[in-house]
Amino acid sequence: MLFKPTVWLKNVLQIDKKLLFKYKIKGLILDLDNTLSTHGSPAAEFGVTEWLSALRGLGVKAVVVSNNTAKRVKPLAEELGIGFVAFGCKPLPFGLRKGVKLLGLPKSRVALVGDQILTDVAGGNLYGIKTILVEPFYLEDKPSFRLRRKIESAVFKRDFSKLEKR
Hints:
Blueprint: E1 7-9, H1 17-22, E2 27-30, H2 48-57, E3 61-65, H3 70-80, E4 83-85, H4 94-103, E5 110-114, H5 117-127, E6 130-134, H6 143-159
Parallel strand pairs: 1-6, 2-3, 2-5, 3-4, 5-6
């Protein structure tokens, strides 16, 4: 189903060895805003740097794919020590394809992690990779974001009754 994630979590920090093993994930394509940091923030949220370090220790690779500009994405990706794709055009597959190529892994071993159903989950599902929906760190108050979240709420009620949630 287009809008149904493989897994739904509170935040990225819940992605652990057990979950990675269960879904045979060796690489993560990470959204940036409200997944690794709050929208527009130059810094990662508390715990993200350590979480990424723990992933590296497990042999898991990570890359950021964001619809945002390189000016926004590059500094934080570099701070975190991971590659990035800006102007990812999610939900279209172009940026995700580049992200998988940067990871050097087959699609079957990659999951996309993001906070938006209409871009992240739909994009990952269209591209044929696992999807992990995380709740946003902060709910934006701009009209476009409020509309998107309203649409997502309607989707939640319809599609997520049997979803694994941790």
